[in-house]
Amino acid sequence: MNFFKQLVDRERVFDFMVPQQSPVDVRHGPILYLEDVSVSFDGFRAINKLNLTIDDGELRCIIGPNGAGKTTMMDIITGKTRPDEGSVWFGSRHNLLQMNEPDIASLGIGRKFQKPTVFEALTVFQNLELARATNKSILPTLTERMTGEIQDRIDEVLLLIGLKNLHRQPAGILSHGQKQWLEIGMLLMQKPRLLLVDEPVAGMTEQEMERTAELLTGLAGQQSVVVVEHDMGFVRSIARKVTVLHQGSVLAEGSMDQVSSDPRVIEVYLGEEA
Ligand SMILES: Nc1ncnc2c1ncn2[C@@H]1O[C@H](COP(=O)(O)OP(=O)(O)OP(=O)(O)O)[C@@H](O)[C@H]1O
Predict the structure, then answer these.
(1) pLDDT tens for each residue of 109-133
(2) How far from each other are the two terminal CA atoms of the chain, in whole angstroms?
(3) Whose CA is nearest to atom 24 of ligand 1?
(4) Number of folded domains in the chain?
């Protein structure tokens, strides 16, 4: 019963996961570009003249206090929320503000929400197989013959996420951390150019956090990765460049050492323990 409900819900999610269509042009600039973006909810400015640039292949960490606008920023990038003003470009060719959620996903922007939502009754392998589902429905995808190319991609992804030995196991038996990796793997099946990852290590053990750090740092370069995270130990372990959001704008940006010694960042977010 639960499984069928999951399928139905998931099918809606997979509507947003169709393969990349037109190439993203990063020859002359960043992969993601937000300029002067603002959005208000009932008169409250959740995002306020936000400027943000992500380079191709970059791993960027976004930190900031509760309510700083991190989730809203991701909602704007993925087309879930429309800003009141500003520009949002994916490479130099794609104006994301003129596109809807499925089209933005099809360009190669994958989003990992905080909670894992894998199909517990299906095996790890089948979950990945399903994730190649494009705009087709789920059941035919499972019963279709698999091409060598898809099999190769699944093998590649299984290695990346470290679940090769568990590929025949139902996803329901995986630990919380393994489910998170599987879900990242499901996004990787679509070969995204940009991955947005929301609080990936919440609820993970130390060991799982270390493995997640390896996974995310290993993905950067192949694709751009934007990680929103509150766990400062984890951010420190993966961070190259860190952006601190506060009241819907960038408060500080730089290396972890730079931002964590910035008095403004200490005041609004890190407190005296930084
Ligand atoms: N749909 C909405 N309607 C009204 N207010 C909203 C809506 N979405 C976000 N907000 C408000 O906008 C502000 C920014 O919220 P957002 O969730 O983006 O912050 P955040 O940085 O992700 O916080 P957290 O770290 O707690 O997840 C908050 O004050 C929130 O209450």
Answers:
(1) 999 988 778 999 999 999 999 998 6
(2) 48
(3) 66
(4) 1
Model ipTM?
Answer: 0.95
CA 256, 262, 264 angle in degrees (round to 5)?
125
Range(s) of the domain holding residue 172: 1-15+118-190
At 144 the pLDDT is 59
Identify whether 176 is part of a domain: yes
Short-list 118, 114, 93, CA closest to 103: 93
Q: How many CB atoms sit inside 10 A of residue 57's CB? A: 15
pLDDT of the residue at 52: 98
Q: Residue whose CA is closest, atom 17 of ligand 1?
A: 71
9 has a pLDDT exceeding 60: no
Please give the DSSP secondary-structure letter assigned to residue 249: E
196, 177, 168: which is closest to 77 by C-alpha? 196
- Does residue 44 lie in a domain region? no
Portion of the chain with pLDDT greater than 70, in percent: 86
**Could you tell me if residue 76 is left (phi over 0), alpha (psi between -120 and 50 degrees) or otherwise beta?**
alpha
Average pLDDT, the chain: 88
Tell how strand 194-198 and strand 109-112 pair up.
Answer: parallel
In this prediction the pTM is: 0.87
Predicted confidence band of residue 6 (pLDDT cuts 50, 70, 90): low
Q: Specify the residue with its C-alpha closest to ligand 1, atom 30.
A: 67
Please enumerate in sequence order all residues whose Cβ is within 8 A of that of 38, keeping only pairs 6 or more positions apart, or say none: 45, 47, 48, 49, 50, 83, 84, 85, 86, 248
Question: Contact, 90 vs 107, CB < 8 A?
Answer: yes
Contact (Cβ atoms closer than 8 angstroms) between residue 50 and residue 86: yes
For residue 66 and ligand 1, the question of a CB distance below 6 A is answered with: yes
Residue 203 in any domain: the answer is: no
Q: Is the CB of 71 under 6 A from ligand 1?
A: yes
Whether residue 127 lies inside any domain: the answer is yes
